Amino acid sequence: xxxxxxxxxxxxxxxxxxxxxxxxxxxxxxxxxxxxxxxxxxxxxxxxxxxxxxxxxxxxxxxxxxxxxxxxxxxxxxxxxxxxxxxxxxxxxxxxxxxxxxxxxxxxxxxxxxxxxxxxxxxxxxxxxxxxxxxxxxxxxxxxxxxxxxxxxxxxxxxxxxxxxxxxxxxxxxxxxxxxxxxxxxxxxxxxxxxxxxxxxxxxxxxxx
Length: 209
Hints:
This protein is an alpha+beta fold. It has 10 helices and 8 strands. It is 48% helix and 15% strand.
């Protein structure tokens, strides 16, 4: 209930939030106990060293299951190659996306010389569509009438110069594209209020203790 209050899209698009949480857990950025998702501060500090597009691709790769770092990097690079193969102004049906995906997957397997596929057990068309749907749910692919387009905004950069707005009421507003690394040191002293296009937090005594 608290999660859907803070992350309001979780109520309307629960699958997207579930996949995001699953990916972050597989990356070791969140630990789940019975009632909570607990951020791992040191891992977040390391993760923030990656460029924003790379972080999104790593999350997409991690959604596909927990695996070794080397395989995770290969999966992230594969998703990057797949998205970069799509024309920004192009509009693609599921069938066309599947053809692109299958061709690149076979090409990656041939060029890598690996004995096992990058996504074990995901060689069928149905399974590959599931992987493509992950990209849709994570908004790396966006709907365009009856087709799909690559979300060119996924490569947007953060800026350390983006201001963090603090009000006398101890409410803090974080604007889009604010560098996560710049606010990470103070996040442990704040509780989330609402996370949409902008994020609102409240500095509380309980959070600081």
